[in-house]
Amino acid sequence: MWTLLLALLAHFFKGREPRHERTLLAIKPDGVQRRLMGDIVKRFEGKGLKLVAMKFLKPPVALLQQHYIDLKDKAFYSSLVQFMNSGPVLAMVWEGNGVVRTCRRMLGETDPADSAPGTIRGDFCIDIGRNVIHGSDSEESAQKEISLWFQPEELVTWYSNTEAWVYE
Predict the structure, then answer these.
(1) Closest CA to 123 of 4, 24, 42
(2) Does residue 67 form part of some domain?
(3) 151: domain CATH number?
(4) Which domain holds residue 40?
């Protein structure tokens, strides 16, 4: 029986080395205060993505300034940092094939008014300044953001038994 199971698994994965890209998602203080954390996490788990790190924290200003450094010349930079520091944030790292693109589509547009129903922002948000969740916008920014928010030992590498049912 074990031989057959191993042969089937070998067949599923033959020539397929899944590209386990990672992305940072952070439920912002408005999403935490509105108690949307469980609903949001459930969407990513239901999609088949794998959670590899999570922490609940009130992020320090220095971390937020570094995280949003690309926006430092924008008029809203200071208020964004202040808002993100106003309460707890649920920071997460998710893993999967094409996870950055997949998560961005699940989030919806930055402006909830432009977000389709069925997306997180389309379902839970009205105002751009309260769009409940941050998601990395590229693989490069994901790597940078993950290293800002998490130490390497906080990222858990593990195999999900469902991967053969999620990926062809």
Answers:
(1) 42
(2) yes
(3) 3.30.70.141
(4) 24-157
